[in-house]
């Protein structure tokens, strides 16, 4: 089994003590349909993260929403506990708000910043730019200017999202390190033809937990039983590939169940097997030095033709005079 190296910095997050779900979801727009969360607390101290610390930092710096954050003197792995993104998922570039919890030096970061409702706002020189709102030393909001200002206005009030969605969020956050859930908005179209099958999904949820290996749990509901059959067949091929790559006696599991229009997927890879897979990925990415070919021996010099003596009839050597020579 191979893990995509670009995903490792995300998958290697470890469990942190969750903040109150109600407090966090208070900042979400009322029309929220999709939510993703990642716990990054203790990432820098985990054995796997130490192997990928540079890659994790590079990945973090390249994340679009994080580019809006003032990164000077800010260490993503050290200063952040949790990141949660919420969106209504409408359109090709849907508006989103990111709630970041951790430790922020507000006095330093907010020096000279503009304020809205008493909250420092960073960035947003253009109307289309994302802004960062430092609510306090433990919470920051990043996202569309309109969504961030609306979230500031909702502080201290009650969440506007559906109570059922709030309960599902709380359940996933308490169990998993990386998680997500959502519903497809009406009229959703896949951004690329290769992702056409995603259009058949009307709601989903998943979670990844890493305390004793890699555990993935997912539940996918399709728009019709026929769509479920097609998706089940595709995942069945993935399951066959997964099982074919496991060594003899492996404790890894790939369980797929279908119930009407709902698919339930559970994957488990023990810690030792996960370590071997990661080490194999590292070895595959390491540059190798090709053996130096031995130099070819120089071809032997052509022998000089032996001088030929010319004799007269009596056997005496004849001296030839070349034209133009004295």
SSE sequence, one letter per element: HHEHHHEEHEEEEHHEEEHEEH
For the record, the count of structural domains works out to 1
> What is the distance, rounded to the nearest whole angstrom, between the alpha carbons of the first and last residues?
89 Å
Largest sheet: 12 strands, antiparallel
Percent range for β-strand residues? 15-25%
Uncertain residue segments: 1-18
Main sheet strand line-up = 4-5-6-7-3-2-1-8-9-10-12-11
Helix content: 25-40%
Strand tally, please?
Answer: 12
Count of DSSP helices? 10
Rg to the nearest angstrom? 33 Å
Secondary-structure map with pairings?
Elements: H1 8-11, H2 21-25, E1 34-39, H3 47-51, H4 53-62, H5 76-79, E2 80-87, E3 96-102, H6 106-109, E4 114-116, E5 119-123, E6 131-136, E7 139-143, H7 145-153, H8 163-175, E8 178-183, E9 201-209, E10 213-222, H9 225-245, E11 253-259, E12 262-270, H10 271-285
Antiparallel strand pairs: 1-2, 1-8, 2-3, 3-7, 4-5, 5-6, 6-7, 8-9, 9-10, 10-12, 11-12
